[in-house]
């Protein structure tokens, strides 16, 4: 089999997520329908090669040396399960290669939500991912990698991992996989993917964002917002403001003041749009601090930051979260409560993104309690010659659709203020055998340029409530600890909003 390598153009380097007990107060629709994964507990042998499991295959690429095993005995469910033992060169990670067991493709409903669960035992971090495949509106084949869940914490025993996956609107099939890119061992069993029934709908929470500060966006798109009384978040490259040679394409001081005067939010996008994953520590700190100060000179707070090219490192994510109240990526997907403010997901809208595709994301946000949809725009032109452009008419049509669906559209900072003002919810965590919990919620699907809802993918953690049989006897104590953790983090966010230095929020909830 040819090694499947993720597209690098849209790949954002993801920081490891850290598991905590403050789990999701997110409610999901009841599950409906059968498990879509063939041979989910890996019991059945392949008809042509009985030494291998039916409907499962392996794949590797890059700087990983793996050994794949179809185990017999000591499994979570039944007698058989899967294992990967891998050796990875020092300093290498997912950008350099990975190894995976993946399922056979199964049929999915476009824009549906899947409840995904599996049994996992590992001594290194790993990822649950999906590859969605289908065709665009013109019939051209299209695929997208989806990050379903980052699993950061090793487990000495089998632990149940759960997440929620949003199926891309173009997809006809998907295949699930467990991926590793570190020296160690990962074992997997009992993979489930069940289509969730539609839930009661409520207005979608939406933020419109503009990256870079392109003049064309302010000439064509912002007037449409202002005419409707809508406001957005603008991630400005501060070093381009009034810079000789840049004024024809990027906003100057007057336009920034006009945006603020009209009630829009301004946020940072570095000094000169440098790839922060390749920056030195000094360059990273300079871009985080000086870009914020440059924008604050306009008399405004600067709550947020977005990575140029969606590219960052784990260290960069930590430093950015110390400097800003929230950090936005271009990893596609919805954001679910409690929001991961160090890695907010967003869908990038391009000249090939249809209004119907955006509407599919809105519909998903309507059905998931607390889901937050962030859209990213760059440039605008009636001809939209490059993928970073949209046409003014497509933007108008998107706004018409959003308002027809009664979407609640606010700048990102305003949505965070609304969330932080809400009372603490009751938390019911999933607790795996042995007491390990892996259900810190994140946003809905997608990664790797994977179309990575960033262009790419997104991931979300699904929690079920009221399922007493799935909670250990100490659930009440865990729920209390989880609520306390959420309260402490909200205090830190409030402190940051007041300009007080605060420790970074643990990633991955």
Topology:
Blueprint: E1 56-62, E2 64-72, E3 80-88, E4 97-103, E5 106-107, E6 113-122, E7 126-135, E8 141-151, E9 155-166, E10 171-180, E11 184-195, E12 205-212, H1 215-220, H2 222-227, E13 233-236, H3 253-261, E14 265-268, H4 281-296, E15 304-306, H5 314-323, E16 326-328, E17 347-348, H6 355-367, E18 372-377, E19 379-380, E20 389-390, H7 392-404, E21 408-409, H8 412-420, E22 452-453, H9 475-497
Parallel strand pairs: 12-13, 12-18, 12-21, 13-14, 15-16, 17-18, 19-20
Antiparallel strand pairs: 1-4, 2-3, 3-11, 4-10, 5-10, 6-9, 6-11, 7-8, 7-10
Helix pairs in contact: 4-5, 6-7
Descriptive overview:
The protein is an alpha/beta fold and 509 residues long. The protein has a domain of 231 residues: Alpha-Beta Barrel (TIM Barrel). It is 21% helix and 27% strand. The strands form 5 sheets. Strands 1, 4, 5, 7, 8 and 10 form a 6-stranded antiparallel sheet that branches. The chain is globular, with a radius of gyration of 22 Å. The two termini are 37 Å apart.
